[in-house]
Amino acid sequence: MSEELKKGLEGVLVAESELSYIDGDAGQLIYRGYSIDDLAREASFEEVLYLLWHGHLPSSEELAAFTDEMSTERQLDENVLTTVRQLAEADENPMAALRTAVSSLSAYDPDADAEPTDREANLRKGRRITAKIPTIIAAFTRLRDGNDPVAPREDLSHAENFLYMLNDEEPDDVLAETFDMALVLHADHGLNASTFSTMVVSSTLADLHSAIPAGIGALSGSLHGGANQDVMEALLDLDESGKEPVQWVKDKLDAGERVPGFGHRVYNVKDPRARILSDKSKALGEAAGSLKWFEYSTEIEEWIGENKGLAPNVDFYSASTYYQMGIPVDIYTPIFAMSRIGGWIAHVLEQYDDNRLIRPRGRYVGPDAGQEFTPVDER
Ligand SMILES: CC(=O)SCCNC(=O)CCNC(=O)[C@H](O)C(C)(C)COP(=O)(O)OP(=O)(O)OC[C@H]1O[C@@H](n2cnc3c(N)ncnc32)[C@H](O)[C@@H]1OP(=O)(O)O
Ligand SMILES: O=C([O-])CC(=O)C(=O)O
Question: 273 and 253 in one domain?
Answer without folding.
Answer: yes
